[in-house]
Amino acid sequence: MKRFFVTTPIYYLNGAPHLGHYYSTTIADILARYHRKNGAGAFFLTGTDEHGQKVAEKASLVGLSPQAFTDELSTEWKSTWQNLDISYDHFIRTTDDYHTAFAQEVIHRLRENGAIYEKEYDALYCVGSESFVSKSELREGGLCPDHDEEPQIVNEKNWFFKLTDYKDQVRRLIETDVLEIKPQSRKNEVLEMLRSPDIQDFSVTRERVTWGIPVPFDENQTIYVWIDALFNYMSALIHSQGIETSERDIQDIIKDITDIWAPDVQILGKDIVKFHAIYWPAFLLALGLNETQLPKKLLVHGFFVSGGRKMSKSLGNIVTPQSVSAEYDQIIGASRGNDVLRYYVVIEMMIGNDGDVTPERIQEVYQSDLVNKIGNTYQRVLGMARKYDLLTTRMAPEKQEKLAQAIQHKSQAYMNQQDLYGYVHYCLDLTGEIGRGIELVKPWELAKNGQDDELKYHLSKWLTALEIIADLWEPIMPASAIEMKSLLAGNQGMLFPRIS
Ligand code: MSP
Description:
Layout: E1 4-7, E2 11-12, H1 19-38, E3 42-49, H2 53-61, H3 66-83, E4 90-93, H4 97-112, E5 116-126, E6 131-133, E7 152-161, H5 163-175, E8 180-182, H6 184-195, E9 202-203, E10 205-206, E11 214-215, E12 218-223, H7 225-230, H8 232-240, H9 250-254, E13 265-269, H10 273-286, E14 297-301, E15 304-305, H11 321-332, H12 337-348, E16 355-356, H13 359-387, H14 397-416, H15 420-441, H16 443-448, H17 452-473, H18 478-488
Parallel strand pairs: 1-3, 1-13, 2-3, 3-4, 8-14, 13-14, 15-16
Antiparallel strand pairs: 5-6, 5-7, 7-9, 10-12, 11-12
The chain binds 5'-O-[(L-methionyl)-sulphamoyl]adenosine.
The site of 5'-O-[(L-methionyl)-sulphamoyl]adenosine has 18 residues, from β2, α1, α7 and β13.
């Protein structure tokens, strides 16, 4: 059986991880955890994108060599993810030797296959997005559409990729959902791009960028950072599985990783769709992969802003995952603070939309959902179970099994669509039903009237349901799901304390 293969973008090392990066990574983490528990296993890949002009410029600003700079920062990123309990299976650095060798093999193969050619040209290059921009894409004042920067004019002799040979095939693959792009608005946007005259052959090597992987057959050039970066998804998997690569071509190597390859879901933000939806499949086709060997789905998310404005140091509105997590560790204890942020990013915006994050809003969601809805229901049912000495009672095994299956069937439908928002709402609805049941049944009256069988019947049903729901919460709030189960097993504790 094929494992579920999920990827995040690899992050540029020009600062510490912020909430935007956390969002991509957390979505992937949730999907990986879900498939490990409910499917044929998962392979979750993340890492850092370390080459290119942008990183080199940042390094020189702080007076470090690019290598020393990236060594330092990638260690910080790795430990941030570890501290936040991100369950990646492999962390790639594009400066890793195996990746460098693989990227060189890729460019060599592209040349062998006649997919690249040499050309001298003039173009506009935006360092912020490490990409060429056409004049028609520029914003007012000649600025890059995604950055407040004026692009540089570049005149170089480079190797060009024949994107025009592949764009019709890529368009058909997207139209027919062989390569799915979610949400639909992003799919439309990509199809629009593919019809535009701006989609032309483009340069995949750079003459002046020295902080990059050398082109093996042209000593004046380094590999364009986006080719280098996109192929992390393949090099990392091959390396992590210990596959022998020497003297083998890529199509042959792929045969050894079919238990994981191709990516089932690739998570990315809306700013990097073109690279993933157009360049990436085109490169893979140019290497000779067939249509069944391409990534299956791109899940494109929106952007987080803070208080209606882009997060920035000067505005002082940056919300970091580390600080939110530490703040709620203080309130909940037992290193469960990160669960609050995980819950928040899922419930606050449907994947694809933009969202606004402020500490006040996180607190509101904590109180209204985690404390009042979830925590309160667990605490009420457990309180009564303790009071009436029914803590260990559960539904009969066959009934339990039936209920679990019905619930899993529904929750699976959400997860198979990567609809985390729908999934969490479904969990909340189930919890809400228990709350409504308590009000309707009034267990305290049953106890008072000596209706013991009925009391036991209802409590066993609610306790069983809460156990099943705890399982559903596991991918979203892993540490809290453990706490839920511990409470249901009779241990003392508080799920989500109220903030005074
Ligand atoms: N290095 C490239 C990706 C190469 S993948 C082969 C890159 N890196 S990045 O660090 O700039 O961005 C990584 C991801 O973080 C992107 O998906 C981007 O959309 C996401 N985010 C960066 N800022 C964001 C927000 N404020 N909100 C949500 N996500 C955003 O691009």
